[in-house]
Amino acid sequence: MYLHSERNGVYLPYEISQVFSSWSFTHTGNIVERMTMKTLFALFFAALLVVPTTAFAAGGRSTNPAQGDFLPAHNFKVEIDGVIQGGFNEITGLESGVEVIEPSDDDPSVTQKRPGRAKFNNIVMKRGYSEGNTFFLDWFKKVLNGTTERKSGSIVYLDREGNEVLRYNFFEAWPCRWGILPAPNPLTGQSYVIEKIEIAIEKVERAK
Could you write out the DSSP letters of every residue in 69-84? Predict the structure, then answer.
């Protein structure tokens, strides 16, 4: 239902018009009270544009074509040799590079650069610690005892509904660091325990 404002010639939804009509526009001592109906109408719809952006910044997945369809950076699952080994809320290290070689036998007046070996960073994963899931700890203990079991795996990105939208496969992986550490919770003022695993890999590639 829409009502017409005789003061400014603007059509407003009934609920909004009731809010605006409860405000006084006759006083001159307050800036807000001296604003016209059209100005308040413009501010109202400007606020509606801010809400989706704020929700996206808080961790939601954008559905605005102008913004692009970005993935939340806190929802992953990890597969090792085809078996899901749990969910993670933080994964870093999916990065690669190529060494830069500067040969000394070329033109001395110009520094030439050539690509060398490809290098892939270690992958670091964090999640809430659970005593019942000891897969990565058991795998790491084997390395400490002198047995290096190399495995292949995948890092799967999930959307807010838990659907797979992106997958990276890694190869020749083995755990080089494992630990548990406290993480403060700013909402409660208390700390909880997280598990941190670092794995060395030789190659990673995007599968989806």
Answer: -PPPTT-EEEEETTEE
pLDDT of residue 208: 66
d(CA 119, CA 107): 28
Q: Is residue 79 within 8 Å of 123, Cβ to Cβ?
A: no
* pTM score: 0.61
DSSP assigned state of 166: E
CA distances from 47 to 41, 50, 54 (A): 10, 5, 11
**CA dist 147 → 39, 67, 79, 174 (Å):** 72, 48, 21, 10
CB 127 within 8 A of CB 192: no
Q: Compute the chain's Rg from CA coordinates.
A: 28
**Contact present, 4 and 17 (Cβ < 8 Å):** no
SS3 assignment, position 31: coil
Of 14-23, 61-70, 183-192, highest mean pLDDT = 183-192
Tell me the domains of the chain and their CATH numbers. 2-57 (no CATH), 76-206 (2.30.110)
- Residue 148 CB partners (closer than 8 Å, separation 6+): 142, 174
Higher pLDDT, 97 or 186: 97
pLDDT tens column, 156-171: 998 888 889 899 999 9
